[in-house]
Structure formats: structure tokens, C-alpha cells
Prior knowledge:
Layout: H1 7-14, H2 18-63, H3 69-82, E1 86-93, E2 96-105, E3 113-121, H4 144-149
Antiparallel strand pairs: 1-2, 2-3
Helix pairs in contact: 2-3
Amino acid sequence: xxxxxxxxxxxxxxxxxxxxxxxxxxGLVLVAxxxxxxxVGIATVAHHRARNAADLGALAGxxxxxxxxxxxxxxxxxxxxxxxxxxxxxxVDGWEIVVTVEVAAHPLPGMTRTVAASARAxxxxxxxxxxxxxxxxAGLPPPAASVARGDSGARSPPRPxxx
Length: 163
């Protein structure tokens, strides 16, 4: 039998060029995985930007809550827009402010998604004291947490272990 007439030679001739197809298929899978990973990364970055903008906006608003709702919400909106976010809602309740912002994400060409985040800022169980620069007749109620507990929010120091 001649080498060309054998079964292995015939099959080898039929498989010519299949390595190119396999290489193209593997390359396509790798490109698709890269695009998907990029989209996930862009969405994650947008989520972090939204959370940061909400946190900073709430802190800025809380710093001006004594001036009234409009001043606090305007300050929150300014900080949110400086962080490339849009203020969606702003609620002031006593000394607390809750801010919700949205950030646009473009994970794939032609696709736009919106990521929202909320943040709250205000005192942590401490009622306004005259030495803090707030007058008792400012017209703002004390924080809800201290009213619900019935105390000024002061905490006793922790007890040592074994005592």
C-alpha cells in the first residue's frame, strides 16, 4: 500500500485548515470574555462613583442643615454634580439628611445604564449643644435617635473585661 492510499493520510488531508478555524474560535471567545469583563468593570466603577457622590453630598448637606433644607440640598447637589452625578432626591428630617444620586454608565457602545445610590448623614446621637454654635431656638428639633432613647446620646465608657 502506498503512503497516500493509507487511512491516516486521507484523514489528514480532510482536516487541513481546521487549526485556523479553531484559532479563530478561541480568539473570538477571548475577545467576548474581554468585552464582558470590561462591561462589568465599567458598571462597578459607576457604582463606586455613585456611592462616593452620595456620601460626599450627604456630608456636605449635613454641614449646612442648620441653614435650612434649601441650603443643605443645594450643597448636596453641588457636590454630587462635581462628582459627575445627578441629585435625584434630598430629604431633611431634623438634623439628618438623606441624599439619592444617579450616575450614568456606558458599559457597551450604544448602551446607557443608570446606577443609583443613597446616603444618610447627621449627628450620631448627640443633641445640639450651645457650645456647638446652635441656639436652642433655631427651630430645628433634636435628632430622632436621642428623642427615642430619652437621653442626650451620651455614652458611658466601656467596662474593662473581667470587671
